[in-house]
Each structure stands twice: as C-alpha cells, then as structure tokens.
Amino acid sequence: GENMLWGGRFTGGLDPLMVSYNESIYYDRAFYAQDIAGSIAWARANKNRGILTEHEFSEIERGLNAVKEEWASNKFDIKPGVDEDIHTANERRLGEIIGKDIAGKLHTGRSRNEQIATDMRLWLREQLKTIEGYLSDLLKVIAARAESEIEHVMPGYTHLQRAQPIRWSHWMLSYGMAFATDLQRLREVVKRVNRSPLGCGALAGNPFNIDRDAMAKELGFETLIYNSMAGVADRDFVVETMQWGSMLMLHMSRWAEDLIIYSSGEFNFVKLSDAYSTGSSLMPQKKNPDSLELLRGKSGRAYGQMAGLMMTIKGIPSTYNKDLQESVEPLLDHVKTVGDSIQIATGVLSTLAIQPESMLASLTPDMLATDLADYLVRKGVPFRETHHISGRCVALAEKEKTPMDKLSYEQLHEIDSRFDKDVVEMFDYQRSVEMRSASGGTSKSSVMEQIKVLKQMLEGN
Ligand code: ARG
C-alpha cells in the first residue's frame, strides 16, 4: 500500500491477490489517449485559475504527450503491482519524465472518480461514432439490394407457415426499418454519453472554481453533468449503450435466424458466400452458416453484459464505489461485439446470393386464399362471409388433392355463384403483391417508398 499513489495512510502491503483483484490497468489502458486528453484539459484549466504556472502547465503538457507517445508506440512499461489503473500509471510515468515536483501538482482538486467517468465517456463517444458508420453501411447495402432485387417474390411467413407472397426486398426492408430505428436511437444515446463529469471531484465538486465549461469545450463535450455526485455515480451512459446494443443485437439475431432457415437445403432461398461460411471437419459436403449462428449467439452475450451491469449497479449506495469498475470490461466487450457483428452482417448481406427460382417454387396457390376472399369483397360481400367461402375453396382443393389454382371455374362457381370467369386471375403472385400498394405494403411502389424513407432515416431525418 505505501508504494501506491494513495499510500500515505497505509503501513502494510496489499495482499498479492488483492493487488491483481483490484487493478484495472490491463483493460482500462484502452482509455490512455482519453485519460491524457482529460489531464491536459485539467492542467490548462488549473493554470487559468492560477493553480499551475505557465511553465508548470507546459511541462505537464509536454510530459503527458510523451506518455501518450509511449502508449501509442507500445513502449509504455506497465509496472506490475504499482500501476493500478490508467490514471495512476499515467501520473507515475509523468513524474518520471518531468519530475515529481511539477507532476505532483496535476492531481490538485481532482479524483480518479471523475477521471474514469470522463475517460469512458470520451472513449465511448468515439466508438459509437464508428459504430454509427458501420450501421449506416449496413443500411446502404439493404437499400441498394432492395432496389436492385425488387422483382423477386417469395413466401412471407407467420408462425413460420407460408402466409402471403411478398417481395424479397420487402423482407430485407423489414429488418432495414428496425436497424434504421436503431440508428435513430444511437444518435440519441450519443447525446447523453457526451456530457462532461470533469470537475465533479470525488463527489462534492471542485474547490478551486475550475472552469468546467472550458474543459468540456476543449474535450468536445456537448454539455456538463450538473450534479457532481451524479457525475461520479452515473454509469447510465454505459447501461443505455448496452441496452441500445442489446436491442440492435436482438434485431440482428432474428435477421440471422431467418437467413439460417432460408439458407437450409429445404428452403434454398439464399446461398451464403464462402467468406462467411465454414465446413465440417467430418462431413465433406457441409457448408455451415457460422457467421449467422455467431450473430445469433453473440446477441446472448450482449444481453448478458447489459443485465449483469444493471445487477451490479442496482444496489450500490450513493456516488462512487469500486463496484463501478466492473462496468469497464463489459462495456469494452459489448462495444466490440456490436461493432464486429454489424460489420459481419454487412459482409454476409453484400455477398449473399439469392435463389429466385426456389423462392418462386415455394409459393403455393393457397397463399392466395385471402386474395380470393378479397375478390368477393370487391363485389360487395362482407369479408367475414368471403373468408368462409374462400375457406371452402381451400377445403375442396385439399379434398380433391389438387392445388387451389387448378380448381375449375365451374367448381368455384358452384361454391359461390358470385365468382365470375375473371376469378382465375386471382391466382397470380405478382398480382397479389401489387395489390398491396398502401404505404408499407409489398407492392413495387410501396417498397420503393420504403427505400426512400430508409434513406431519409440514414440522413438523420
Ligand atoms: N479504476 C477505477 C475505476 O475503474 C478508477 C476510479 C478509482 N477511484 C477510487 N476512488 N478508487 O472505477
């Protein structure tokens, strides 16, 4: 303990296992650049309040940039058992470079509690911007494919039972809309991440009237956290990010599950490219959709991190407690999992080959039973009645062991005399999809409208 930065009141050493149990340097080193940027802003603000001289500030700035350079070039030598976390490591090294007399003034009025919160927010802000780019790329691929493959019709499912014909593009856009909404949510989350806790102190605030606004501006924060206790206690920005990521992974997982089904031999609607498939070590014929299974699997991991952190936080008393250190690793892992997953999904989709003949071959005439009912609706028959009549046609086809579209006009007419000769026109999949031309439907014009809306959501409208 006495060797540590906080060791003044300690006499004995730490239990060796306690040293490693307590230290976070091996993962919070990810924040080295943010920690140093925060320290430079901190030193500058203290200079402007007369706490540091011009010379002391420029020495600290020079030293911190040298430390940053060491991290960047992988030359920073972590002192095991001494460098507890990124904050103490940077300060220790700063002292070695510029001397302890000046380096010892950097931490005036400051707490690691505000430092870690600042570092995490700065780091996360950048990561979320990168992820926003990945998500935009995925949406662009969806929009482009939806446009170029708009002709292809496939079965749409409810309960995984064939329901009604849809455009393949309509399926893609159903997930596109979910991902675009995730993009909108992300832009909201970033705003709340991007608030500055710097100047909150350990919990009670800063005693040297430090200019928090100036520090926030220097670091690119949008606004401050206006309660110092909230500033050091709050990991809502981590939880919210993981809730956001969990929702995205939920969409990703269902998307992947659909494609796993569609890529099976029984469906054969899509073929995954080799780049995103793997083989079997035993069965030579196998080509497995591992990329999609991992997307599905990693969604579970993402929710686990979210739920785990909420449990960690829910019972801790006011302001900083070391429990909060347990927010760092899940965040690092969650952000990597989500970022990688979006990129994999984009890769899968942009290299996917569709099998339009199989899609077409999987359509069955009974999927047009609703259209048959709608035919009579247009002749003024109440829908509840037409539903029943069409159901009798389905039953007759089943009894005759014939596809519904092979029933003769006479057979249909016998079931209901309001069926005219033109009823046979109902057995046309293209016609069926084109009928659904209200906004959001599967007609060509409605799908084109969806693509337009998706692009607007991408632009932030
Ligand atoms: N490594 C710590 C964390 O990640 C930094 C803050 C430590 N503060 C303290 N008072 N022990 O939360």
Class per helix and strand makeup: mainly alpha
Annotation, overall tally of beta strands:
6
Reading the helices and strands in chain order gives HHHHHHHEEHEHEHHEHHEHHHHHH
In CATH's first tier, which class of the largest domain applies? Answer: Mainly Alpha
DSSP strand (E) fraction? Answer: under 5%
Number of structural domains = 3
CATH architecture of the largest domain: Up-down Bundle
Major sheet strand order: 1-2
Low-pLDDT windows of residues: none
CATH topology of the largest domain: Fumarase C, Chain A, domain 2
How can the largest sheet be summarized? 2 strands, antiparallel
* Full CATH superfamily name of the largest domain: Fumarase/aspartase (Central domain)
The overall average pLDDT, rounded, is: 96
**Number of helices in the DSSP assignment:** 19
What is the alpha-carbon Rg in Å? 31 Å
Structural summary, described in words:
With about 450 residues, the protein is mostly helical. It folds into three domains: about 5-105, Fumarase/aspartase (N-terminal domain) (Fumarase C, Chain B, domain 1, Orthogonal Bundle), CATH 1.10.275.10; about 110-360, Fumarase/aspartase (Central domain) (Fumarase C, Chain A, domain 2, Up-down Bundle); about 365-425, Fumarase/aspartase (C-terminal domain) (Ribonucleotide Reductase Protein R1, domain 1, Orthogonal Bundle). It contains 19 helices and six strands. The longest helix is centred in the N-terminal third of the chain and has 37 residues, at about 110-150. Bound molecules: arginine. Arginine binds near residues 85, 112 and 116.
